[in-house]
Amino acid sequence: MNYDKIKLMQMERRDIPDLKGILNSYKIPLCEFRELNTSALNDTYDSSLFGKDGNYNFAIRATTEGAFLSTVGFCSIKCIDWVSRHCELYFIYATDDDPATIPNNDNAISAFRTLIDFAFNELNLQKVWISVPENNNIKGVLNSFGFVAEGVRRRSKLSKGDYIDETICSLLVQEYREREIK
What we know:
alpha+beta
């Protein structure tokens, strides 16, 4: 579905059921050893809200005809290294027809661009990186932003009973600013 406008908004407690549903139904491999439950997500939310973990967590919300619809995804800036000025990105956009966490559609790309803009322009970071499981079809989107594959972590994620590789892709602020984003 194409929406009028996509916005990143600070995650709120009311977003937790949507987040739980997206993560558990899509079986997106994260650093979790079991399905997420509401209690664990509430704890994570409380840590983020009160600045205990230094992460920035956003709900991706869409509007049609000026009215907000349900949350369509989530994204985060995590593991910020304030000395070296880099961080890890997480991005999950719910869609029925594309298994990628960053589908190749205008709305998802707009939200991802907003997340990167926030990291580089608001937080003044120098580098962002994202972990890409081998079964995730987002490399085309990352290439359009100028991300470069830095390396492969072999057999690092368990997905549907099999261990899979993940590629670490990064983008430097200079590369982002020099590149014309489509």
